[in-house]
């Protein structure tokens, strides 16, 4: 039932459809792509749908995981892959998870130390350096099963660098990346903005690749929660998705991103210089290999495609994180809550794609559409398959 007092008639906020819980604690990490959460609160999209978001900044993705699982957080801005790792019991406690929607596509990058600039200009020259020296270079990613790890590994391997043998890989929380590069503790990293732009603005690092060059319009952050929360609070979960969809749509207007850059610069959110944030937040998409970030794109950036989650699992299998072959589609179908997303999208006028799968061409020319994940996972020359 629609609330007749709602400023937008038709939005579901009352009666039997009212959110079971109205105040939601939502975790986030200090990254530019937390912008939909910030915009939802600043613009009142949450209250429009009968909920109030309490944004809770977290120091790391491990903290997001732990606080989701112990109930301190109701839901979170999370790496694509964080919920999958928990669902599969990789590197921590197993718990059934729910991914309600994607928040954005792209908008991340791979940064190298400025000390490498005289000798490295692209992936091929980095590969020559790695092969030609006895020194073992150190690269950082942000969470073992997250998108940054999988995209960094894919990029390195595409140039013949085995990410688990030829280089050392460490895990560092996003806000600490630039500091570690500055101190010389890592030679490069893959992370979300603005921590690539910050290193470059300080003259301590340079962006060698945008992750959208690895996989155009790749999935990035999501709204994640436990399955228990989604099942016990389906109306609240739907209201949260509705608020986020409105915020994502609002952010795809360039002038609105200018305002978002101001908000994100606050120490309560990202706490980086406003111009550094804006330099990548306002970067326009180009030629299908967009370095820029997509928050909405007529809903394409938000749909929880099963094939996206299945790709993550093929990479876990490729790198030996999964000892046995999972039922790729079945696992993705349980985690990605297409049902909740469709219900929310219908309420706020967001178009839906014709299929739960999508097709992409990655940097090495390989096509991915989810049709044969077993063959795809086993098709790479550089791997560490187990079992």
UniProtKB/TrEMBL annotation:
Query: Where does this polypeptide localize?
Result: Endomembrane system
Residue ranges annotated as coiled coil are: none
User: What species was this sequence derived from?
Assistant: Pigmentiphaga soli
UniProt KW keywords: Cell inner membrane, Cell membrane, Membrane, Signal, Transport
**InterPro entries per the UniProt record, alphabetical:** NrtA/CpmA_ABC-bd_dom
Q: What protein am I looking at?
A: CmpA/NrtA family ABC transporter substrate-binding protein
């Amino acid at each position: 039932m629609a609330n007749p007092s709602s400023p937008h008639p038709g939005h579901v906020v009352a009666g039997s459809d009212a959110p079971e819980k109205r105040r939601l604690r939502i975790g986030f990490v200090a990254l530019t792509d937390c912008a939909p959460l910030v915009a939802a609160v600043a613009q009142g999209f949450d209250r429009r749908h009968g909920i109030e978001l309490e944004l809770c900044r977290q120091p790391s993705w491990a903290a997001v995981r732990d606080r989701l699982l112990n109930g301190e957080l109701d839901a979170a801005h999370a790496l694509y892959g964080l919920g999958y790792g928990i669902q599969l019991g990789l590197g921590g406690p197993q718990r059934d998870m729910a991914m309600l929607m994607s928040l954005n596509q792209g908008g991340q990058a791979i940064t190298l130390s400025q000390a490498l600039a005289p000798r490295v200009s692209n992936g091929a020259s980095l590969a020559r350096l790695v092969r030609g020296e006895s020194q073992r270079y150190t690269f950082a990613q942000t969470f073992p099963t997250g998108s940054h790890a999988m995209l960094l590994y894919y990029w390195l391997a595409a140039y013949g660098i085995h990410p688990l043998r030829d280089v050392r890989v460490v895990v560092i929380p996003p806000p600490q990346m630039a500091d570690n590069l500055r101190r010389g503790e890592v030679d490069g990293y893959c992370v979300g903005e603005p921590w690539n732009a910050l290193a470059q603005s300080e003259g301590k690092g340079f962006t060698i690749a945008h992750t959208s060059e690895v996989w155009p319009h790749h999935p990035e952050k999501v709204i994640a929660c436990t399955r228990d929360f989604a099942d016990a609070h389906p109306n609240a979960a739907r209201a949260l998705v509705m608020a986020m969809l409105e915020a994502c749509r609002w952010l795809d207007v360039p002038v609105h991103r200018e305002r978002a850059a101001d908000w994100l610069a606050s120490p309560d959110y990202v706490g980086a210089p406003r111009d550094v944030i804006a330099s990548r937040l306002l970067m326009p998409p180009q030629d299908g290999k967009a370095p820029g970030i997509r928050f909405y794109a007529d809903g394409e950036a938000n749909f929880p495609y099963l094939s996206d989650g299945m790709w993550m699992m093929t990479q876990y299998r490729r790198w030996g994180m999964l000892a046995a072959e999972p039922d790729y589609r079945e696992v993705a179908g349980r985690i990605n809550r297409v049902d909740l997303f469709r219900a929310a999208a219908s309420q706020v006028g967001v178009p839906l794609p014709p299929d739960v799968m999508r097709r992409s061409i990655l940097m090495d020319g390989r096509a991915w559409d989810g049709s044969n994940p077993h063959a795809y996972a086993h098709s790479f020359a550089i791997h560490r398959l187990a079992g």
